[in-house]
Amino acid sequence: MIDRDGVRDAARYLRSVRPIDPDEIHEYVEGRPHPALVRQTLREEAYDLALVERSDGSFIPVPDDPIPAVEWAPVRFPDRHANALRDLLVDRLGLDWATGASGDQLRDRLTEVKERYYRAHAVNYDETTALAYAVYHLPGYWAATGYILARLAQADLLPRCLRVVDVGAGVGGPALALFDLLPDEAVVDYHAVEASSPAADIFRSLVDPPRSARVTVHESRVEAFDATSEEPYDLVLCANVLSELDDSAGVARDLFSHLADDGTFVALAPADRGTATGLREAERALADDGPGTMYDPTLRLWPDARPTDDCWSFDVGRSLAPPGIQTDLDALGAGGPGDGTFVNVDVRYAYALVRRDGQQRANVRASPERHAQLAESEQHVTKRVDALVVKLSNDLTGGGGNPLFLVGDGSQSVDHFAVLARESGLNKTLREAPYAAVLALENVLVLWNDDEGAYNLVVDGEAVVDRAA
Q: Are residues 32 and 181 in the same domain?
């Protein structure tokens, strides 16, 4: 047994003096343990001591600046992750995992899970389900989580000494994304909460954390997970899990109470209508009924206003090249060889980022002297108005007509769509601006769309659109 307290005390003394060399520290520790044991202890204690290991084997303090911005627009699932999953499939199911009886079982289970998911029925995550889930969903969930973490890094909101709880960690998509984004000079205390033992086992097999990360897997339902004795989390991550809970709003509120004062609550959900709009319910429990502030994307641009619409809003990332693990399983697809039934390359995700320090991504507010509130659109039908809105969709026509975008200002009770009826140099920003951009709309025509039960803000040759933030 090594004297861990002695190692910690020596490290704390030296960290402000010079790089910590395990060959030196072992001289100061009772029993003079081998330097290799000291090095391993320092790695295990890296988060608590806020130390990172350098390439020369010494340890230095974690820098004070946040995790730097990174570019994240992947076009393929990394081979190292895909190969790890393939090795696991071979280990569990044999070399013919995709073509033999096991392949039939995986395809049948995926078909069943898709149907149950579509009908909002519960899914039993046994080993077959967990493996099928990993093949079909892991690449997309990895990519979607990376997009969100990259947004936080861009805003300097990820500290280099980072404490994370990943609720509904599944087979490891969010963890893989974080560790892929993590710079060398950062340390992470990562807690994965996963109720399914088969999924937790796959997590352990697939997630090979860097030496700077301490990973603890809690096989527990989130409702039973007790974080009260722990220090606060910098990141509370609920990826693709809130829709599976009986009381998502209540769970969100409880988890939010364990967030650090400058931390971020991150909710992710698939882009389909049920899960995406359900995510907004949990979001509003925190940002409107609770102590949080909506950071991104559905900003509250009017003081004391709150949205009550469904808000089916989601972002779209770059499609991934079909991973070999999916094309192998798809080779005997339901409609014929390689029909695409079991290939999942689209990256579409709804998300909500909520803070407790009052921050929101764009520090702009609407003004009654300048802007029409979307909650009052009924008063402006057939009139031209100015409005401040957030762009909450990509082009919903898919290029088949006048570009159409969901927008909101945090006050709306029904859907509002900005329609680019006639593009000009003064309004092309509506089309060009990214998802979640804050836009100033000038001189747009308000119309009621009876077929959709929504308002159209018509952007024609007389309208101007600018980025407000």
A: no
Confidence at residue 400, expressed as pLDDT on a 0 to 100 scale: 80
pLDDT at 222: 85
pLDDT above 70 for 371: yes
CA–CA separation, 117 and 128 (whole Å): 16
Domain of 174?
A: 79-355
207 neighbors 179 (Cβ within 8 angstroms): yes
Helices (H), 4-44: 4-14, 22-25, 35-44
pLDDT value at 229 more than 70: no
Flag whether 269 is in a domain: yes
Alpha-carbon gap, residue 345 to 67, rounded angstroms: 28
Half-sphere exposure of 458 (CA within 13 A, CB side): 15
What percent of the chain stands above pLDDT 90? 82
Give the separation between CA 167 and CA 152, rounded to whole angstroms: 18
Structure tokens at 438: 């804050």
Residue 185: CB atoms within 10 Å: 17
How do residues 24-64 score in pLDDT, each as one tens digit? 888 878 888 888 998 999 999 999 999 999 989 999 999 99
Residue 414 lies in a domain: yes
CATH of the domain at 94: 3.40.50.150
Which residues are CB-contacts of 63 (< 8 A; sequence separation ≥ 6)? 160, 185
* Residue pLDDT, tens place only, 140-165: 999 999 999 999 999 999 999 999 99
| The pairing of beta strand 51-53 with beta strand 59-61 | antiparallel
- Report whether 164 contacts 188 (CB < 8 A): yes
pTM for this entry:
0.94
Which are the contacts of 358, defined by CB distance < 8 A and separation ≥ 6?
Answer: 293
| Domains in the chain, number | 3
In a domain, 210, yes or no: yes
First to last CA, the chain: 57
Contact predicate 457/407, CB 8 Å: yes
- d(CA 371, CA 426) in angstroms, rounded, equals 19
Q: How far apart are CA 294 and CA 363, in angstroms?
A: 12
Would you state the pLDDT for residue 26?
A: 80
> Residues 358, 363, 364, CA angle at the centre, nearest 5°?
125
